[in-house]
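Worked example

This section walks through a single chain of length 119. The input is the sequence exactly as stored; nothing has been trimmed or padded.
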Amino acid sequence: MLKNVIIAYQKLGELAGFASYNRLRVAHREVVNELLANGNNHRQIHWTESVAVGSKNFIETIKEKLGRLVKGRKILENDGGLHLREETATYIANYDIENDNIGDENTYFWDINLLLSIG
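Given that input, the structure is written out below as tokens.
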């Protein structure tokens, strides 16, 4: 009897389109080894930084079920697929006159006599 199993491995294999979980494991190992061999093993942010990845119906269902927990996240498209995540904001520096040298505005003159009397 198995305890604390949170993944139904046989069902996972079936849902992924394999006759058995063992066939899924073999196929997964082959894909991983191929990616490692050809150097195509970089992180894909749509998988690692998204709340959900999949069909539009799947993502909308997840978004509805999570409600306010995913507030502000949008359904985005990437390489023909969809994912639910926050849009990446670009950093735009505002180098106008406001950010120029603040000069004397940031100057405080110490009272040396006061410091000597304290020390």
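What to look for: The mean pLDDT is 78.
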